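Case 350 in the screening queue. Each case pairs one protein sequence with one candidate compound; here the compound is nicotinamide-adenine-dinucleotide. For every case the pipeline is the same: read the inputs, emit a complex structure as C-alpha cells, and attach any notable structural observations.

Predict complex for case 350.
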Amino acid sequence: MSNGSDKNLLNGALIGCGFFARNQMQAWHDLEGARIVAVCDRASANVAAFQQDFGIDQGFTDAEALFEACALDFVDIAAPTPAHAELVEAAARHGVDVICQKPFAGSLEAARRLIELCSTQGVSLTIHENFRWQSAIREVVGLVADGVVGKPFFGRVSYRSGFDVFANQPYLAELPRFIIQDLGIHVLDIARALFGDVGRLSCETARINPDIKGEDTATMLLRHTAGTTCVVDCSYASILADDPFPQSLLEIEGPGGTIRLQQDFLLELHQPDGTRECRTVAPDWPAWSRQPWAVIQESVVSFQRDWLACRRAGHPAATHGADNFNTLSLVEAAYRAAETGQTVVPERWP
Ligand SMILES: NC(=O)c1ccc[n+]([C@@H]2O[C@H](COP(=O)([O-])OP(=O)(O)OC[C@H]3O[C@@H](n4cnc5c(N)ncnc54)[C@H](O)[C@@H]3O)[C@@H](O)[C@H]2O)c1
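Case 350 output:
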C-alpha cells in the first residue's frame, strides 16, 4: 500500500458521511499518524458536505470505485449496520484494514463470516466501540483490574435518560429492536471490560414511548464467568430532573470496598476501614466537542488513538472483531431472554 511521501502516515477513507461520522472525522483530524484522504457515501450531498467541511479532495458515491481509485491503509466504516457486510467484504478483498461501527453485523452468523473473511484476507477488523474508551470508564476499569476492591461480587452499569435521540437519528424510531441493539451494546461492552465474559443472562424490556417501534427500556442480569453478578440497565424513557445524558454510571462492590462513578464524573471509593475518597475524573474535552456529547466525542478520539498505536505495534486493538463478537452475542442473548422469559447462555467466540 502507498502511504504518500511519509511512510509512517496511514491513508484512510471514511464511508458513511452521516450524523456520527463527523465525530470520527474530527478525531482523525486531531491525531497524528493517519489522515483521511477520501470519503464515500451513497448520497452525493453528504459526500460534498464532508469534502467541504473537512477539506477532503476525493469523494465517492460507490465504495467499489473508492477502493479501485485509492491506495488505502484503512477504512473507517460509519454507515448503518445493514451496509456493513458488503463494505467490510469489499475492504477485505482489497487488502485494506477495517474499522467498523457497531453493531458490526446484523446476526452472529454474519459476524462470524466477516471475522473469518478478514482473517483469511490478512486484514485487521476492529469495531468502533468507543464507550469503554471514555476516560472515566477507563479509570474505573483500571481500578477493578488493579484489585482495588478485590474480586467484585456485584456490579451495575446504568444508562438512563429521557434525551430525544430521535431528533438527530430519526431512523432509531423505526427499528424493531431499539435500545439494546443501539445503546445496550455499549453498556454491555462496558460490563465485559469490567468483569469479563458472561456465562448467562436474563432480560426484561418495555416500550414506553408509543411513537417508536422498538423497546426503549431494558434491564439485564448478567452472571460473569469470573463470578460477578452485574445489572446492566438502560432507558431512553426516564424523566429525570438532572438528566445525565449520555453518561454511563457505575457501581462495583467487592470485599475490599465499593467504587461508584456518579453523574458528572464523580468517582467515589469507599474502603472497609471507612476511608472515603472522592474525586472528579472529568476528561480533557476535545476543542471541537459540544455538550452534551463531549463525553462520547472524547472517547472517539481515545478509541482512534489506541487503534493507531495498536496498528503501529502490529497487534489487535481491544475491540477487535472476535472480541466484539462476545459483546454482540450478549445483545442477541438479551433479546432471546426477553422474548422467552428464560435465562440464556450467550454464544462465545470462536
Ligand atoms: N458509537 C456511538 O456512540 C454511535 C453513535 C451514533 C451512531 N453510531 C453508529 O454509527 C453508524 C451510523 O449511524 P448514524 O447515526 O451516523 O447514521 P446516519 O444515517 O446519520 O449516517 C449513515 C450514512 O451512511 C450512508 N450510507 C448508507 N449505506 C451506505 C453504503 N452502502 N455506502 C456508503 N454510504 C452509505 C448514508 O447515506 C448516511 O449518510 C451506525 O452503525 C450507528 O449504530 C455509533
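Case 350 observations:
- The two ends are 30 Å apart (CA to CA).
- The mean pLDDT is 97.
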